[in-house]
Request: fold
Amino acid sequence: MEPMLAEERIVVASPLATGEGGGLAEDVLDGLTRPFKELPPKHLYDARGAELFDRICEQPEYYPTRTERAILEARSGDIAALTGAAELVELGSGTAAKTRILLRALDDAGTLRRYVPFDVTEGMVRDVAADLVRVHPDLLVHGIVGDFERHLGDLPPRLDAGHGRIVAFLGGTIGNFIPGSRRRFLRRLANALEGDDVLLLGTDLVKEPCVIEAAYDDAAGITAAFNRNVLHVVNRELGADFDPDAFEHVAFFDREREWIEMRLRAERRMDVRVDALDLDVSFAAREELRTEISAKFTFERLEGDLAAAGLELLEVLTDPDELFALSLSRPRE
Reply:
């Protein structure tokens, strides 16, 4: 039998309706009309935002990405051996930079058959798929262009009932959910797992506040530009007239809730028009717009959240300084 051509090994499905844009309009209408204004962090990541985030990851203050990568480099073989997975599903896949380490380990173990990247940016999903099928000659890719909070039901069935898969949610992104929403989403992930499937979850750990705050407010000002980028996104996609330079980047660690917050603070009073929503929004001088929370975890909090979602913790993998953790869990029988 002739081997399948690269393009024959790629399927890309899009549950996003044309022009839907990952729910931006709905989120902006909801978030900017609240007494305390906020926007979800997923809208920070357009093409420009992804480029800025890649630069953030190169900054000396930003430990999460390089630490998670180091854990994967050290333990991906163990993960492959423990799971025997034939498929890897990645939520918020982006460029699959860290996931390639695990794909290589699964390939070396002889079990890898399919990769399922799940991301809101179609071009990124297609580029990653084309690159990976060149690197792995027998790999199938089923890309999903969608919002994993809303389209989790669009995951394809497993290729083989006898071989499980890993659902990877990396980068500490689970910390962007407030506690109740976090447990609800973990419960939905647990319901998406079958048989011997496992959840591979990346979580940033509680540590000295000064270390955390520096990671979200680098000296080069790249995180500040990344934070303001959400206003550029709203301007471009919804016809708004934000002046991003009139907003100050704010990042602080809430010691009671043990999460970092990023906000944008208006430097003056201003009125903003969002044409696509027929919406006028006023900002008082020094009024703040929250753009991200990122919860930090203790081992007890991690195990408690997983248990509340119906998941059994199998193993926690961490770095020597316990800055970051990768956990493996499965549905409780």
